[in-house]
TrEMBL record, chain A:
Keywords from the UniProt entry: Homeobox, Iron, Magnesium, Metal-binding, Nickel, Oxidoreductase
Cofactor field: Fe cation; Ni(2+)
InterPro entries in the cross-refs: Ni-dep_hyd_lsu (IPR001501), Ni-dep_hyd_lsu_Ni_BS (IPR018194), NiFe-Hase_large (IPR029014)
Family as reported in the entry's similarity comment: Belongs to the [NiFe]/[NiFeSe] hydrogenase large subunit family.
Taxonomic placement: Bacteria, Bacillati, Chloroflexota, Thermoflexia, Thermoflexales
Enzyme Commission numbers on file: 1.12.1.2
Segment forming the signal sequence: none
GO MF term set: DNA binding; ferredoxin hydrogenase activity; hydrogen dehydrogenase activity; nickel cation binding
This protein's name: NAD-reducing hydrogenase HoxS subunit beta
Automatic annotation (TrEMBL), chain B:
UniProt keyword annotations, A-Z: Homeobox, Oxidoreductase
Residues forming coiled coils: none
Domain NADH:ubiquinone oxidoreductase-like 20kDa subunit as annotated: residue spans: 17-152
Entry GO MF terms: DNA binding; hydrogen dehydrogenase activity; iron-sulfur cluster binding
InterPro entries: Hydrogenase_assoc-protein, NADH_UbQ_OxRdtase-like_20kDa, NiFe_Hase_small_N_sf
Entry annotated with the keyword Lipid biosynthesis: no
Enzyme Commission no: 1.12.1.2
Alphabetical list of PANTHER family matching this protein: COENZYME F420-REDUCING HYDROGENASE, GAMMA SUBUNIT (PTHR42845), HYDROGENASE SMALL SUBUNIT (PTHR42845:SF1)
Organism from which the protein derives: Candidatus Thermoflexus japonica
Stated name of the protein: NAD-reducing hydrogenase HoxS subunit delta
Length: 432, 267
């Protein structure tokens, strides 16, 4: 009998992801015996110290969960609280929120596509090494990123942890003139992205497909980003207030982040691929056209091709932002009036990495009594492990260094934001 | 002529949101130039390539909140010629330092569904609580300009030119009308270190202190003034206890109004 062949792949600190995680894979006789995406980023207890804070503070405090997608936190927090107060932000104020959020999508996607993910496809350790041979693509990627950041800074005050978002709207709104200054940068970003996509479509994508359950928000009038119902490719279609009935979170011993599953079913995927597959018909005409021209039509089941889908979403975001800027007329008031109501508010929005869910229980004085936040990376965590469990056995002929790198790349397909994912350990504080 | 060895830059992460190290990648215009001037030797958010220490300049993001992190920050200090703490987490313990005010006796058993899986320290503290720090760059998040100034100063062997006056000076320079005087909006500007460009007042909201206390501030004077104008003690506690809650001057102010809010609990 041949001796069992054991192989252990261990990545102590995953690079080019946001936050701290490790990967542990143990293979025996061609079978994966152990596989753990270990998230050792320390918990920061946001849900605990939100208790007792005022509802007005939720957007600023929860933004600090993630420096890469602070607007997503601000929007989901506002959504949840505004839904409780029976407040609906419409017209130019809603347009400004969309613009701010598109800015974040452009910034975050360009960061991931050009600086974090693309180097894997070309065999570079980082975009800085890649820039020695491909300076034009790194430069163009940075220009796209900058167009998103500039828009965020204009509306939000700054790119990271914007200061201008509040429940009901904003503190101050921009003039039409200053928004028009962003047209040129956004149009250039869109054109660079189209050019880059045509080039990236020719890269080699590992042959890997899975039968995912895709989950994304759905909005009848737009490619959902700010709000919507929760829809899945396997039949879920529910309001955000039913999120916790459809999905559950599990704690595992090796990770500081909770795993989410569809109750009674298993892992699922949120993020660009899910949105693209479920809401393709709502992308801007140009985004759809470019996608089709590079052979990208739903359903896309190869997670490595999320590189391209992010690019398509950048084109959509640039186009929508241009459209919103063109129709913008400043609102009369920066904030909608509202009254505090006691109760439970639910909110979700589409962070660049997928659905970000918030729930708050607020009392009549406006204090938060309980908060729950489910970030996209916690939802994808189980799915990432499932991908690796399928992928690793096919890669065993590769030298260990290449196998390890390919596993890292498969993790990066999800643009995991580990800083987000870890801050959500369930906290049960017993009250006497 | 032999080219001088490029200085080695390392970027480290502790408990944080990643926003301060992202600030480096947000320098879209300067990033590739910077990469030409320094060797980016350790920066996991951007590169899987790791160059061994020692490092000439270590930028440290995040607060120290687990036993492993205490060992790690000490090791980084040993490996670094200059160690600079960046952001509110690394300079004051960050928003997660709010746990420092909680009653921690028996806390761990109560807090987790499965507490045995988690290792954490009772307090979230700045790097300076464990090792000597050569410079502290403030902000939640830090700004691009100050970060580039810091790296540039380091490359040229001079002290960084970072202001330590209050946000008020920035409002005056910018020509922003005082939100507190003109509109009665509570503002931490008088006690908060400059660096953001007085962003919040320019958007007609009060400063919430994300750059932490200025040099020799007088938060009790500001707090009592707000108290006299109708702000409650619990609201004052919240005002001082956000992203720099454990920075000494804000911590003292928070305690002052916490005692005022709960006189029987003070001991």
């Amino acid at each position: 009998m041949p001796k069992p062949r054991t192989l252990t792949v261990r990545v102590e600190a995953l690079a080019r992801v946001e936050g701290e995680g490790a990967l542990h894979v143990r293979v025996r006789n061609g079978q994966v015996h152990e596989l753990r995406l270990e998230i050792y980023e320390p918990p920061r207890f946001f849900e605990a110290f939100l208790r007792g804070r005022r509802f007005e503070e939720a957007p600023d405090i929860t933004a600090r969960i993630c420096g890469i997608c602070p607007v997503a936190y601000q929007m989901s927090a506002c959504n949840a609280i505004e839904s409780l107060f029976g407040l609906s932000v419409k017209g130019p104020l809603r347009d400004l929120r969309l613009l701010l959020y598109y800015g974040e999508w452009i910034e975050s996607h360009a960061l991931h596509v050009f600086l974090l993910h693309l180097p894997d496809f070309l065999g570079y350790e980082s975009a800085l090494y890649m820039a020695r041979d491909h300076p034009e693509w790194v430069q163009k990627g940075l220009q796209i990123k900058k167009a998103g950041n500039d828009l965020m800074a204009r509306i939000g005050g700054r790119e990271i942890h914007p200061i201008n978002v509040r429940v009901g709207g904003f503190y101050a709104v921009p003039s039409r003139r200053v928004l028009l200054e962003h047209r040129e940068g956004l149009a250039r970003a869109r054109d660079f992205m189209i050019e880059a996509l045509r080039w990236m479509a020719g890269l080699e994508f590992p042959d890997f497909e899975e039968d995912y359950e895709f989950v994304a928000l759905y909005h009848p009038e737009e490619y959902a980003i700010l709000e919507g119902w929760i829809r899945s490719s396997k039949g879920i279609f529910i309001p955000v207030s039913s999120f916790e009935e459809a999905f559950e979170e599990l704690q595992v011993p090796y990770s500081n982040a909770l795993h989410s599953i569809v109750r009674g079913r298993g892992s699922y995927m949120v993020g660009p691929l899910a949105r693209f597959n479920l809401n393709f018909h709502q992308l801007s005409p140009l985004a759809r056209e470019v996608a089709a021209s590079i052979g990208l039509v739903p359903p896309v089941r190869n997670p490595f091709r999320s590189l391209l889908v992010r690019g398509v979403e950048v084109i959509h975001a640039c186009e929508e932002a241009l459209h919103l800027i063109d129709r913008y007329e400043p609102p009369d008031h920066p904030v909608e009036p509202f009254e505090v109501r006691a109760g439970v508010g639910f909110g979700a929005s589409e962070a660049p990495r997928g659905i970000l869910y918030h729930r708050y229980r607020i009392n009549a004085e406006g204090r938060i009594e309980e908060a729950k936040i489910v970030p996209p990376t916690a939802q994808n965590q189980r799915r990432i492990e499932d991908d690796l469990r399928k992928l690793v056995p096919r890669l065993l002929s590769l030298p260990k260094e290449q196998l390890t790198w390919r596993c890292e790349q498969a993790v990066r397909n999800y643009d995991p934001c580990i800083s987000c994912a870890t801050h959500f350990l369930r906290l049960e504080i017993e009250k006497e | 002529m032999a080219r001088r060895r490029k200085p080695k830059l390392a970027v480290w992460k502790f408990a944080s949101c990643d926003g301060c190290q992202l600030t480096l990648l947000d320098c879209e215009e300067e990033l590739l130039t910077l990469a030409g001037e320094v060797e980016i030797a350790y920066f996991l958010e951007a590169s899987r390539a790791v160059v061994r220490g020692p490092y000439d300049l270590s930028l440290v993001e995040g607060s120290i909140s687990t036993p492993e992190q205490v060992d790690q920050i000490r090791e980084i200090r040993r490996q670094s010629r200059f160690l600079v703490a960046i952001g509110a987490c690394a300079t004051a313990g960050g928003i997660q330092a709010l746990r420092n005010f909680a009653d921690v006796r028996g806390f761990l058993e109560l807090v987790y569904a499965r507490p045995e899986y988690i290792k954490t320290l009772e307090k979230s503290l700045p790097a300076s609580a464990y090792v000597p720090v050569d410079f502290e760059l403030r902000g939640c998040p830090i700004g691009k300009g100050p970060l580039l100034e810091l790296i540039s100063a380091f490359l040229n062997g001079r002290r960084p030119n970072i202001p330590n006056h209050s946000v008020c000076i920035e409002c005056k320079r910018r020509g922003t009308v005082c939100v507190m005087v003109a509109q009665g909006i509570p503002c931490l500007g008088p006690v908060t270190q400059a660096g953001c460009g007085a962003l919040c007042p320019a958007y007609r909201r009060g400063c919430y202190g994300c750059f932490g206390p200025m040099e020799t501030p007088n938060p009790a004077s500001l707090g009592d003034w707000l108290l006299a104008r109708g702000m409650s003690s619990p609201d004052l506690v919240r005002l001082f206890r956000t992203f720099n809650a454990y920075a000494p001057a804000f911590r003292e102010a928070g305690e002052r109004y916490a005692e005022a809010a709960n006189p029987d609990r003070s001991s």
